[in-house]
Amino acid sequence: DIPEHSLGLTSCSVSLQVGLVYMFNLIVGTGALTMPKAFAQAGWAVSLALISFLAFMSYMTTTFVIEAMAAANAQLRWKRREQEEVQDSDSTSDYSDDDVRGRSEPETRPILSVQRTGGGHVDHFDIVERVEMGQMASMFFNKVGVNMFYICMVVYLYGDLAIYAAAVPISLMEVACGNHSCSAGGVKYDDTDLCWGPVTRKDAYKVFLSIFTVMLGPFVFFDAQKTKYLQILTSLMRWIAFTMMIILALIRIGKDRGEGRPRMAQISGVPNLFGVCVYSFMCQHSLPSLVTPISDKRRVGTLVVCDYVLILGFYGLLSFTAIFCFDSSLLHDMYTLNFTDNCDVLDIPALRYFLGLFPVFTISTNFPIIAVTLRNNWKTLFHRDGGTYPWVVDRIVFPLITLVPPIIVAFCTHNLESLVGITGAYAGTGIQYVIPALLVYYGRRHLVPMLGTDEVNKHRSPFRHTFWVWFVVVWATFCLMFVTANIILEDTKK
């Protein structure tokens, strides 16, 4: 699963406010940069309705994951207590009562055992242990379900890496080949246009992709650790860039120089918008690392609601300012690039270069972390009980099967719109909808024989009826069918 250090969190307790900020930063990432173009293609009314509904669906499955985390903690406590009872019964059978009374209490006696013998109440559902989604899948699913979970995670991470591998060279190509003399205005370039000398823009993209692979690829063969301050720096850069883009677009619109005349609705753009929105609201796989360190978990539900309201407002503000500021047909896949060659919006060269290179800095720091995560998921998927991998397999084969496929995809296409849409629509749907729904469903079933119906999960989802679980599964299935049918129809037209 996603490692704890990828969020910049430590094992120390954090406040609710810090958790809110981390969750906001976690969700608002690369997907936000591809949102404006997808928003424009589907029409502002349809986009607003769909993004609001998908935010609600993501919020629902987030509450499912938090409930499943509490259920997993309860099951771990229950098993630990059973083991203690077995050990206690074994020890009393080996010694007489006098011998037992004469023996001193060991200092390493578990806290739960002391609480139980002391008559104290144990809150089974308190989230104190970080249980990742992979571990929850192992606890609640059968072997087939666990393998399907890891396959879905692997596919999603491959899509993530392909998006990152394409986004950085695209940004470098646009900065290197774009016209920064304030004479380009709103020109849209073609891949066959010349960049420098006889080198086309497409060739330049491949050159930058090769450099990107050579510089960041070796990190896959090692472990990415101690990235806390790097993540803080990239988060700071992210907010400077987002704030600049929103303010600059608002200023241009306020001066009545906006070029955007967005449509109200365009159904043909809905499938891609769906994939982008699913990708943009993705956080379920990192919730264990985010929620567990929070000290006061009584108001976690309030935190999640506030976060989704803020994120929905932010996406709406970013997208609406974009579609009214720029001509929808000229919006780039990577929204930051609209500010690099249009001096009517931003005429300070240093700031134009900053926005143009912003994805390079932020995405480059995340690529090794996601790659190491994918490599570790591969190892878990093929894990053999009690066995170890040969050195060549562990150090060479797994890193190569992690790095090579997304780089090949990035060499074949740099259409970020399609990469984000497909990744979100397929693997993202599984991770954001299907897996959380099944985790909470089977988590509830596992706890009934252990704790009965008297124990109430204090972190249970507001959507506690089974209807909501199956509603999510049916919705995800319908969306996959709709997106697949649309892709087939589009290919048929071509």
- Sequence stretches where pLDDT stays below 50 over 5 or more residues: 1-8, 100-120
Name the CATH homologous superfamily: Amino acid/polyamine transporter I
* Strand order of the biggest β-sheet: 1-2
Which fold does the CATH topology refer to?
Amino acid/polyamine transporter I
CATH level 1 name: Mainly Alpha
**Taking all residues together, what is the mean pLDDT?**
82
Structural class: mainly alpha
CATH architectural type: Up-down Bundle
Count of domains:
1
Question: Which outline best applies?
Answer: globular
Q: Provide the β-strand percentage band.
A: under 5%
What is the element string, with H for helices and E for strands? HHHHHHHEEHHHHHHHHH
Number of strands: 2
Main sheet summary: 2 strands, antiparallel
Q: Helical content, roughly?
A: 55-70%
The separation of the N and C termini measures 39 Å
| Oligomer category | single chain
Membrane topology: Multi-pass membrane protein
Family: Belongs to the TMEM104 family.
InterPro entries: AA_transpt_TM (IPR013057)
Protein name: Transmembrane protein 104
